[in-house]
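Quick check before the chapter quiz. The format below is the same one you will see on the exam, so make sure you can read both the input and the output lines.
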Amino acid sequence: MQNNKRYFGTDGIRGTVGRAPITPDFMLKLGWAAGKVFASTGNGRNKILIGKDTRISGYMFEAALEAGVTAAGVDINLTGPMPTPAIAYLTRTLRAQAGIVISASHNSFEDNGIKFFSSEGIKLPDELELAIEDLLDKDVSTVSPQSLGKASRINDAAGRYIEFCKSTVGSSLKFNGLKIVVDCAHGSTYHIAPAVFEELGAKVKAIGVSPDGLNINDKSGSTSPQALAEAVLAEEADLGIAFDGDGDRVVMIDHLGNIVDGDEILYVIARDRRRQSIEFGGVVGTAMSNLGLELALDALDVPFVRTPVGDRYVMKEMQNRGWDLGGENSGHVICLDKTTTGDGIVSALQALAAIANCEQPLADLRSKMRKLPQSMVNIKIANAVDITHNKTVQSAVSDVELKLGKNGRVLLRHSGTEPVLRVMVEGEDLEIVDKLAHELSEVVATEFAS
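Here is the expected output.
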C-alpha cells in the first residue's frame, strides 16, 4: 500500500520550498483534504492542531493550511513554534481529531514538510494518508459561511509540554549539581528544552537558541554535534544534549567530548530499566543499528530485533510486540511507556535518570556498550536493483561474512532519498572492516553501477 502513495513518504511529505509539492497552493488543498477526512472521523465540532518549527517558510504554510482546514469546516488550534512530539502530546490531551506539524526535521531551512498525527498522538495509518491523497485530485469546496472553521491560539502550549516532559521522570528525581550544555539547533526546542532541564535542577548553558528563520540545523544540533562537543569541554560540563530542528531526535556528548548516539542512548536506558527490574519487553532497532548494541543487550538478556530504516517501521514493530523501547542510531529514540512517538527531550530525560540512578557519569555508562567499527561505501545506481538474486554479489557477501565471523555483519540496502546502493560492513577491526567494505563495493559496482 505504501507504494501507491504519491506524496506521503515514511515521515510525512517533505521537499524543497517552492517546488511541488512544497508550495502554498498545495498546502491549502492539503489542509482542506485533511480537514474533510478528519471531519468525517469525529463527532460534533472538530478541531486540528497546527504547530511548526522555526524555519521562515513555516509562516507561509501555516496560513495556507489554516485557510484549507477552515474551508472544510474544521476549527484550528495554533501553537506556534513547538517540537514535533509536543504536537503529538497536545493533540491527544486536547482531544483534537489530528495534529499537523510544519517541519523538515533535521534538514536545512530551504526544505519544509508536513507531518500528521492521529487523535491518539501517533502517525497516521496508510488508509488515512491515502484518503487525504484521494481528495487532492478534487476541487476545493468551501462549507457554508456559518459552518466555517475558526482559528485560535493556544497560549500555554509551551508550559503544558514542559510540565509533561518533567512528569516522565517522576517528581522525586532532581538533577541538582549537574551541569549541562543544551544545543537546540535554532529549532523548535529553543524555548522548551532549557526550561525543562533547569526546572529539574540542572545548571544549563543553552546554545542554538537564537532562531532567525534561516539558521535551523546550521552547523548545530544533533546532525552537527561538533559545536556542542567543543562547548561541553570549554564549559567543563558534565554532558551535552543536542536536538534536531523539530525536537524528535537527540544525540548526547559525554564530559570527555565523545558523541553518544541513539544506539548508545537506547542501551543506557535499557540497562537502567533492567537494573531496576522495570519490564519493557525488549528493544527494537533498525538494519543500521550497531552490532555492538545487539551484543550488549544480549549480555543483559534483553531481546533485540531489527526493522528496515525508518521510525515508522520501528514503531510498528514495537506495537506488534508490546515492547516499550526502540529507535535508530540517528537519535530517534522511542519510549512508548512515556509517550506515543519519538521525543528528543523525553529520551534525554530517561538517559539523565539512568545517570542519576546509577550515580555514574555518561562516559562510564556508554563504555559498557562497545560500538563496533562500521564502514559504508555508496555506489551510484540508475535504478533499484534486485541484490538478493545476483549470484556474484551474494557469493561475495558470503565470503565477507565468513571472514568477519559471528561479531560482524554485512548490509546492502538502497537509499530512500538518493540513487545510491549502500554497502555497509561492520566488525571488530576497523582496518579489516574498511578493506572488506571497499572490496565488496567493487564487486557490487561491477554488477550494478550506472
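If your answer matched, good. The chain has a mean pLDDT of 95.
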